[in-house]
Specification:
heterotrimer, A alpha/beta, B alpha/beta, C mainly alpha, A: alpha/beta, Rossmann fold, six-stranded mixed β-sheet, 10 strands, 38% helix, B: alpha/beta, four-stranded antiparallel β-sheet, globular
Chain lengths: 282, 287, 270
């Protein structure tokens, strides 16, 4: 069994009888393995955030099942155990910090879990070091940059010692530097600590960093696969109002014009070397 | 005569306090009528403070701001008229919506200008058209709309004042790719039709490259570069030094150029790159 | 700019008073305030003044900041001392029409002024050396027994924590909204009272909407972090009384005892 598994999950808001069933999610079946880095991609309103909130029992399926580490999210008694195992980081870094001192905010999760004081101290220090915010531990959150706040939010989840971190568009409100900081942190946690990462985003250049990309559209899974498999479907993505990296678009359009290039170019250097090779022969 | 001009403008936050910081440092520049200018710089480079000098939201600590040759602070009591001439859309402008209907919210600016109820409404309808808001949304509460629609309502609220200069601070932040492209296209169309000056602040070099004729690059409160878009993006090393990058497509073309392939190293869009590469691939010669 | 206002007046530092248990500081400050009123004559008041001065020196905070905190209530000090100055009994020293100044009046005025000034200074010592978070924490711990009479102590403390966290954020937000509406030509500065109140609507509505959105997000974030009220909750920070805490308690109690003894054996004026 995967670490997170959804079986035919359907979700709709508002259960009024007169309303036609308006599904936000329709028949989603997917599996996320332990240690994987999965990007969940889709435009606004595609259902990607709604799905993410099913992964830590913040939302419960209207139909179907969600299992987190073999625990059924519909089982009310397992709620906090699930949330401890699969932590959720939200979009707006300003609105998810509770305390007015960084280290006390990070301690909030473990305090709720009833962890003994001495151990909280150890966990908080470790979590802050893991996201590179240890030297800011006694600062006030509102004086930090967006990227720093978001890293503190990640530390707050880390201190609960989760197996999986779900991040709901964590970089949407950040400047390029903040985005880089947060992405580097996420990748480090995935590689060095083996933490399962589910990154919800609409930035293609973030999705290419993942092991696997799942593209959502209209509450359904449109395609999934490795970044190369997914981004080679340029036409499909464009038809569903998603973007592809400029390198991919360039090569795709040259292919459309009848030139022979590989269909799975994602990065600048790949693009440059295939173009150079093609032009060298002339 | 330049439309907007800064003469040796300095702005200091918290002057005479321990928190004193110089956000804009002796900046002089001028902007002509009808230009589309991109403003770039990393967070804290002073670009947000700079753009607030243009419409008199912040008063320079020293130096002058001239609109059509007249010092905007010559008569501080009349500063509101400057704000009608230089429209400013802040980041996340949807957070400023407050009226009962979309139409009334858009008409807030025109009404503040002293226009009659009817004129204000006409302006509001025209502005709604410019940002592509459907007619049936106008009588709804702005709080019922989607994020992208709210954003367009807020932008329409500034366009409705019919400013000579439109300043947009990261208008596409937080929108998804389709929302981003839609909005940028609408701004472009508005610029083409009205022939007025637009200043676009953005972190997305790809967006800036597509839209702007000239780039204002800010660093540490000073103007680092103020040149046409292409020549700015040709200075990749200089940009990287101050924490900025060039569009991916420019980088690719630059690498090809460096490897001896005769392409324009300053190509700004995928279209330009295709135009350059297709003839070469069809059998051009090496340099 | 609104965002320059900072909440509380905490001055970070490493003085002995900064390191004292906030619970001890809170209780002792309260005790000192009570004894400022118990002190019945100039000798016992002198003892209290000396004690307050000692605390100010130990806090390591510059005198300038203390004087600044005085500024806000300077008017009250002058007003009350003037009142007392003219209401003294006994032989007038100076007669200004119907106003007379007596020795008794001068002493009274000086005495009352000293009391108010000490009151402000000792409260400032507390707020200068204790961060708002520590104060909240101390309050929560000291009020804990009130749980038994169904006072929601944890909830009150949580509300204070969140308020401390979000006040700066909301002030910044107010600033932004004001700028945005000014850019649309909102006139916040002129007009009569009704016009000015009306002019606040475009600021207050977006502010409320934003506060609700933030509250919704925060509630979700807290749930994600397994918040379920105060039951079974632990705290990272543990407070233990250490030797310097006992020393300060002992000194303060000695001073208070001194005040009582002086009051009894040297019943003087006032």
């Amino acid at each position: 069994m995967g670490f997170i598994e959804t079986q035919n999950v359907t979700f709709s808001y508002g259960t009024g009888e007169s309303e036609a069933p308006n599904n936000v999610l329709t028949d989603i079946t997917m599996k996320i393995e332990k240690g994987e880095f999965v990007a969940l991609l889709g435009h606004n309103g595609s259902g990607k955030s709604t799905l993410a909130k099913h992964f830590n029992a913040m939302l419960l399926p209207s139909g179907g099942k969600v299992y987190v580490d073999s625990m059924d999210t519909l089982d009310e008694s397992l709620k906090y155990q699930i949330r401890r195992k699969a932590g959720l980081v939200l979009q707006n870094p300003d609105n998810q910090l509770v305390a007015s001192i960084v280290e006390e905010d990070v301690a909030f999760g473990p305090e709720n879990l009833g962890v003994p004081s001495e151990e909280i101290r150890v966990r908080v220090d470790e979590a802050l070091k893991a996201v590179g915010m240890y030297e800011h531990r006694s600062h006030a959150p509102h004086k930090l940059s967006g990227g720093q706040k978001q890293r503190v939010a990640i530390a707050g989840i880390l201190a609960m010692e989760p197996d999986c971190i779900i991040l709901d568009e964590p970089t949407a409100m950040l400047d390029p530097q903040g985005r880089t900081e947060v992405l580097d942190t996420i990748r480090k946690l995935n590689r060095e600590k083996g933490i399962t990462v589910v990154l919800i985003t609409h930035y293609m250049d973030e999705a290419v960093l993942a092991d696997r990309v799942v593209v959502m559209d209209d509450g359904k899974i449109l395609i999934e696969g490795t970044p190369k498999e997914v981004f080679s479907q340029v036409e499909l993505l464009k038809n569903h109002s998603l973007d592809v990296p400029q390198a991919t678009e360039l090569i795709w359009r040259l292919r459309q014009a009848g030139f022979d290039f590989p269909g799975d170019i994602l990065f600048e250097d790949e693009c440059v070397s295939v173009l150079e090779k093609a032009l060298e022969g002339r | 005569m330049a439309l907007l001009e800064l003469r040796d403008v300095t702005y200091i936050y918290g002057d005479n306090t321990p928190f004193r910081s110089v956000a804009v440092d002796h900046v002089s520049l001028s902007i002509e009528e009808g230009e589309y200018i991109g403003v770039i710089g990393h967070t804290g480079s002073g670009k947000s403070t700079l753009i607030q000098q243009f419409n008199g939201l912040l008063r320079p600590t020293s130096g002058q701001v001239l609109l059509r040759g007249k010092d905007i602070w010559a008569e501080p009591k009349k500063i509101r008229s400057v704000r009608f001439a230089v429209g400013m859309v802040f980041q996340y402008p949807e957070h400023q919506l407050f009226e009962e209907t979309v139409l009334r919210d858009i008409a807030f600016g025109p009404k503040n200008m002293g226009l009659s109820e009817q004129e204000a409404e006409e302006r509001a309808r025209a502005a709604a058209g410019f940002v592509g808001l459907r007619e049936e949304l106008l009588e709804k509460s702005p709080f019922e709309l989607s994020g992208g629609e709210k954003r367009r309502v807020a932008i329409a609220g500034v366009i409705a004042m019919d400013p000579d200069v439109l300043i947009l601070d990261e208008p596409t932040a937080g929108l998804d790719p389709s929302g981003r492209n839609l909005l940028l296209n609408q701004i472009e169309k508005y610029h083409q039709e009205r022939k007025n000056t637009v200043l676009l602040v953005s972190h997305s070099m790809e967006d800036i490259a597509k839209a702007a004729d000239r780039l204002l690059v800010m660093n540490h409160g000073k103007v680092e570069l103020f040149e046409d878009t292409k020549s700015v993006f040709l200075k990749e090393e200089q940009l990287e030094k101050i924490g900025l990058r060039v569009p991916q497509i420019t980088k690719i073309m630059r690498s090809l150029y460096d490897r001896g392939i005769p392409v324009d190293p300053g190509a700004l869009t995928v279209d330009e790159a295709i135009d350059a590469l297709v003839p070469l691939l069809k059998g051009g010669e090496r340099r | 700019m609104i965002r320059d206002i900072t909440l509380g007046q905490f001055v970070p530092g490493k003085s002995i008073l900064h390191r004292i248990d906030p619970r001890v500081k809170l209780l002792l400050t309260f005790l000192v305030i009570v004894f400022l009123f118990v002190a019945g004559n100039f000798i016992s008041m002198g003892l209290m003044v000396a004690f307050v001065l000692l605390a100010m020196i130990l806090s390591g905070v510059s005198l300038r900041l203390y004087l600044k905190s005085m500024k806000a209530i300077l008017f009250i000090v002058i007003f009350t001392s003037l009142l007392n100055l003219f209401y003294g009994s006994g032989e007038p020293l100076v007669q200004l029409g119907f106003l007379k100044i007596t020795l008794d009046g001068i002493l009274r005025a000086a005495y009352i002024s000293l009391r108010i000034i000490c009151l402000v200074f000792i409260s400032s010592v507390l707020t200068f050396t204790t961060s708002p978070t520590d104060l909240t924490d101390a309050l929560e711990r000291l009020m804990k027994p009130l749980r038994y009479i169904k006072v929601p102590v944890h909830e009150i403390a949580m509300m204070m924590t969140i308020a401390l966290r979000f006040v700066p954020t909301l002030l910044e937000e107010t600033d932004k909204i004001m700028s945005a509406q000014k850019a649309r030509g909102a006139d916040l500065e002129s007009g009569g009272i009704f016009q000015r109140i009306r002019a606040l609507v475009p600021i207050l509505i977006p502010l409320f909407v934003s506060a609700f959105r933030r509250a919704y997000d925060l509630a979700m974030a807290m749930e994600c972090r397994c918040y379920h009220g105060g039951d079974g909750r632990t705290k990272m920070k543990q407070l233990h009384l250490r030797s310097h805490d006992y020393t300060i308690i002992a000194v303060t109690i000695c001073v208070c005892a001194g005040v009582i003894l002086i009051n009894i054996f040297l019943p003087g004026m006032v």
